[in-house]
Amino acid sequence: MLFSLLCQHAFCSSLSHLCPKDQALALLQFKHMFTISPYDFGDLKTLSWNKSIDCCSWDGVHCDEMTGQVTELNLAGSRLQGKFHSNSSLFQLSNLKRLDLSFNNFSGSYISPKFGEFSSLTHLDLSNSNFTGLIPAEISRLSKLRVLRIQSNSDGLRFRPHNFELLLMSLTQLRELILDSVNISSTIPPNFSSYLTTLHLLNTELYGILPGRVFHLSNLQSLDLIDNPQLTVKFPTTKWNSSASLMELYLSSVNATGRMPESFGHLTSLRTLTIISCNLSGFIPKPLWNLTNIEELNLVDNHLEGPISDFFRFGKLRWLSLGNNNFDVQLEFLFFNRSWTQLEMLDFSSNSVTGPIPSNVSGMQNLQRLYLSSNHLNGTIPSWIFSLPSLTNLGLSHNHFSGNIQEFKSKTLHEVSLKQNQLHGPIPSNVSGMQNLKVLLLSLNHLNGTIPSWIFSLPSLFYLDLSDNHFSGNIQEFYSESLDFVSLKQNQLQGPIPKSLVNQHDLYYLYLSHNNLSGEIASTICNSKTLKVLDLNSNNLEGTIPLCLGEMSVLWVLDLSNNSLSGTINTNFSIGNLLMVIKFDGNKLEGKVPQSLINCKGLEVVDLGNNELSDTFPKWLGALPYMKILNLRSNKFYGPIKDSRTDNLFAQLRVIDLSSNGFSGNLPVSLFENFKAMKIIGENSGTREYVADMLSVDYTSSFIVTTKGLELELPRVLTTYLIIDLSRNRFEGHIPSIIGDLIGLRTLNLSHNRLEGHIPASLHQLSVLESLDLSSNKISGEIPQQLVSLTSLEVLNLSHNHLVGCIPKGKQFDTFENSSYQGNDGIRGLPLSKDCGGDEGVSQATTPFGLDQEEEEGDTSIISWQAVLMGYGCGLVIGLSIIYIMMSTQYPAWFSRMDVELEHKILKRMKKYKKRR
After folding, report:
1. CB 421 within 8 A of CB 400
2. 675-699 residue pLDDT tens
3. Which Pfam families does the annotation name (predicted)?
């Protein structure tokens, strides 16, 4: 009987694991719909699927022991790639209870409504598999679901209005709900599963007020509402019902303004507390110190303050991050706290920490990350920091540390940031270990000497910034092959550019500007297939520009300005290049502007100023759709800028500088008409936007402009700072009134030309104009009274023209001095001494510029009496002549009447003159 039972059990067991043929076929068909991605990581589970083997034995497939039906399919991270169709054979597996398709690549696929037909599903995970579009309402039919994860990794998933509310109300058995980065755009309804243990709704566009019921879910263990800025969270003021279960709380960029509530002290099971950028203020309440089980405390970017000594009670703490607050940190107590034996992360950056770091320390043997940047620390950096056995990341930048850098002895360091301090002396020449160092930031200090050879040999180094120091000597050859970013700018480095540096395979950003580098630019630099920024500005480089530079396929910025480069620009800029900035200014370049620049469709800045180029105006550059700055100043350009019937030339232009050339003819009216970006006043959005803003890669496109009477070098040009400078040319004719339509202009300089006619009254429309220079032309007529409305005008220069009439009064015109008008003999009014008339409208004589008041009065008196005597002398001669004629012609009556009238007029004028004296 026993033998019979064993045989029966074995027979039944063998039958129970046989997979139905239709389900095996459905799985194989599903497998063949996809390819295996060669770029992703994961297990190749479907490779084991073979029809010769029972499908219940395949990787990721689980069956019911009695029926053999497939009940679980786990293909998470299986590197599947392809379209997930709504008629997929997967939907034939009607008995599925668990389905995990996460971390695959179904790019562009929709979540089929047929997922709602898996009526037995308890677990569904479609996270991070590049699904897109609407989440079907049919998901709400899965009433047995306990776990639902649909995280989006492309922000392409969303709910229809009210479908999120329907889902929460229908899935009453849910334990875990994760919808990170799904566009919900809804409030959280008050009614949902009371069984929830995990609720993660990170970056879901939630709004309204978080229902208070969430904080009283008795089973809730993990709550994540990070990055929902329109969501208001009101913390409970009484004891939380979830005090026995809540272990993780994540809040970031939500509206939780106010003080941290004392009710947090009831969450005795809490392991992780993260509240970032929530505008919390004040002291941390005392009940919080009861959270003795806390392991991770992250309160970055709030307005919290007070002492931190009570943090020492947290003996299990592994992660303490309090950056960007107002904590009064006592470093001596901090580093000698013996209770933090497990501490791995310590962040007090951007607080109000002062004083030196203690010279020795106890504990901290497990510390991996130490961030104290942006404080007021001083003294020397103690050597023990560089010897911590587990330290990987060290951030001490933006402080007042001085002295030499100690020798790096830690072999675990990945990142060291000591930038913007007052460190001096050389970098240590003998360094042990450092094989794992990836980031070294020492910029903005006073370091000197040569750059030691060990830096150039670090095998893992990819980010090196030694800029703004006093390093000298030659740059040694690089032996590291992992470099991504190199900045050695603003030093005193000499010699040639190392060939090994420009030949780096993975180098993206190279900054060597403002040094004393010499020699020629080797054409081997063009071999780089990854270089995006090449900044060699302000060195002593000579020779010609390599022809191949324009063929670098991914280059964004090419800055060779302020060197001694010569010859013509023969560079061939290839079709499809990605150049945004070309700066060749301040060299000795000759010839013409290369026509191949038209292939640089992404160009925003072209700066060829201060060279010896000889060409007509390259109007064809206007066809580049993103052109914002064009600088051709101080060259030998010549000829008229002809009108064009082509629309949209230079439509996005913000700055045009053609000064100090030989341009002639009339001002280009049609060009002004096309300046569409200048016809808009840039709005102040609160954030400063710059032309060719490359801040993310540490590049600033500096630009020399003449504005407000000064020649300035702007490190960056605001998109709202619009400039036209056509000065020092040979333009003639009238100033076109169309300039008044360029209402966004901040600077207009047309000085030192041959312009004539009147100042157009339309210039009063330039409401944000700050500098207007029309000096040294042949402009005539009066200054338009309408210009008084230019309340932003800081500098006005109308000198050396032929202007007449009265200077407008009021507003900005009351602030301008004599120099704004000198050299215009016909101008009257303040600030000139030649006024526009007293009560009787008689003008006074003009005072020469620079005479004092006493000299003015004396000269005026002499000139007045000389005029009187000359008048009387001439009158006497004419009078005697008239008497002789009248007597000889015998008209005494007429003569008598004329004599009486003349006497009356002379007496009347004499009385007026004496009265004024």
Report:
1. yes
2. 999 998 876 544 556 666 655 566 7
3. LRR_1, LRR_8, LRRNT_2
897 occurs within a structural domain: yes
pLDDT bracket for residue 232 (50, 70, 90): very high
Helix (H, G, I), strand (E, B) or coil at 222: strand
Instruction: Give the residues across from 209 on adjacent strands.
Output: 232
Q: How many domains does the chain have?
A: 1
- Residues comprising the chain, all counted: 917
Q: Taking the CA of residue 695 as centre, how many other CA atoms within 13 Å lie in the half-sphere pointing to its CB?
A: 8
Report residue 306's pLDDT band, with 50, 70 and 90 as the boundaries: confident
Q: DSSP state, 207?
A: -
- The reported pTM is 0.80
Range of the domain at 916: 883-917
Backbone torsion region of residue 227, taken as left when φ is above 0, otherwise alpha when ψ lies between -120 and 50, otherwise beta: left
Residue 559's φ and ψ, nearest 5 degrees, are -120, 105
Structure tokens at 494: 């000499």
Contacts by 2-7, CB closer than 8 A, 24 or more apart: none
> How many Cβ atoms are within 10 Å of 353's Cβ, its own excluded?
20
pLDDT, tens digit, for every residue of 462-492?
Answer: 999 999 999 999 998 887 778 899 999 999 9
- Residues 202, 177 contacting (CB under 8 angstroms): no
Q: Which of 841, 852, 845, 754 is nearest to 801 (CA)?
A: 754
| Contact status, residue 230 vs residue 203, Cβ threshold 8 Å | no
- Contact call for residues 263 and 241 (beta carbons, < 8 A): no
DSSP annotation string for 543-577? EPPPGGGGG-TT--EEE--SSEEEEE------TT-
What whole-number distance in Å separates Cα of residue 200 and Cα of residue 217?
14
914, part of any domain: yes
Question: CA-to-CA distance for 364 and 378, rounded, in angstroms?
Answer: 21
* DSSP codes, 730-798: EEEEEPPGGGGG-TTEEEEE--SSEEEEPPPGGGGG-TT--EEE--SSEEEEPPPGGGGG-TT--EEE-
pLDDT value of residue 675: 92
Q: What is the pLDDT of residue 642?
A: 85
Mean pLDDT of 790-799: 93
Nearest C-alpha neighbor of 158 from the set 133, 186, 139? 133
Confirm whether 431 is domain-assigned.
Answer: no
Q: Does residue 626 register a pLDDT over 60?
A: yes
